[in-house]
Amino acid sequence: MGTPNAAQVTCKRCPSKAVYGFDECIKCLMEPARKKHKYKAEPTVLDGIRFDSKFESERYAELKMLAAAGEIADLACQPEYPLFVDGERVAAIVLDFCYTDWRIGGKRVIEDVKGVRNRVYRLKKKMFEAQYKLRITEIMRPHRKRAQWRIKKCR
Q1: Cα(122)–Cα(130) distance, rounded to whole angstroms?
Q2: N or C: which end of the chain has fewer CB within 10 A?
Q3: E strand or H helix at 122, and its extent?
Q4: Is it the case that residue 39 has pLDDT exceeding 70?
Q5: Confidence of residue 55 (pLDDT cuts 50, 70, 90)
Q6: Half-sphere exposure of residue 111, counting CA atoms within 13 Å on the CB side?
Q7: Residue bearing the bigger pLDDT, 117 or 91
Q8: CA atoms of 113 and 140, how far apart (whole Å)
Q9: More confident site: 35 or 123
Q10: Are both 81 and 112 inside the same structural domain?
Q11: Angle, CA 147 vertex, CA 142 and CA 152 arms, to 5°
Q12: Residues 6, 53: one domain?
């Protein structure tokens, strides 16, 4: 006897009622699309800290265990270091972890978990190492194809 009431259709993303002629509510229609990571990293939250990838959060869990065992101390997540050229701040680099490692004589270790080293990161890394006279330890998950290629290249 008439068309079904479109207001009774629920949104496909939330429990609200959908807008007539659409399968989403006003809020979801107006919300910007979630941007995907360029390298398909999945953001995760661990202990209330947001990490850019699951691999980074796994590394944090490992470092927490080392801190609980007393092998490392002063664990800091995502410290930011300003980068200067001729006394003027030109950029900042946010690294993943910074801690004191008692296994190597109490030296300060600065780590960055990387999936891909892009041009901007390589430039900021060089600027950081020149300015602060510290080395960045890169933690990389080996990829099967790349690991095989590197083995062939090294021989």
Answers
A1: 12
A2: N
A3: helix 119-132
A4: no
A5: confident
A6: 19
A7: 91
A8: 6
A9: 123
A10: yes
A11: 165
A12: no
Cα 22 to Cα 2, 18, 26, 28, 79: the distances in Å are 19, 6, 9, 11, 44
Tens digits of residue pLDDT in 112-134 = 988 778 899 899 999 999 999 99
Shared domain check, 106 and 53: yes
Please report, for the domain that includes residue 92, its CATH number.
3.40.1350
Pairing type for strands 49-51 and 97-101 reads: unpaired
Q: Provide the sign of the torsion angle of the four alpha carbons 94, 109, 56, 67, taken in this order.
A: negative
Per the structure block, which two tokens stand in for 136?
Answer: 């960045």
Residues paired with residue 77 on neighbouring β-strands, in sequence order: 97
5 CB-near residues (< 8 Å, 6+ apart)? none
Whole-model pTM above 0.85?
no
In whole angstroms, give the CA distance from residue 115 to residue 55: 9
- Collect all residues with Cβ–Cβ distance below 8 Å to 73 and sequence separation of at least 6: 67, 99, 100, 102
The closest alpha carbon to 94, from 64, 114, 116, 74, belongs to: 114
For residue 117, what are the domain limits? Answer: 44-154
Number of neighbours of residue 60 by Cβ within 10 angstroms: 21
Q: How far apart are CA 78 and CA 154, in angstroms?
A: 33
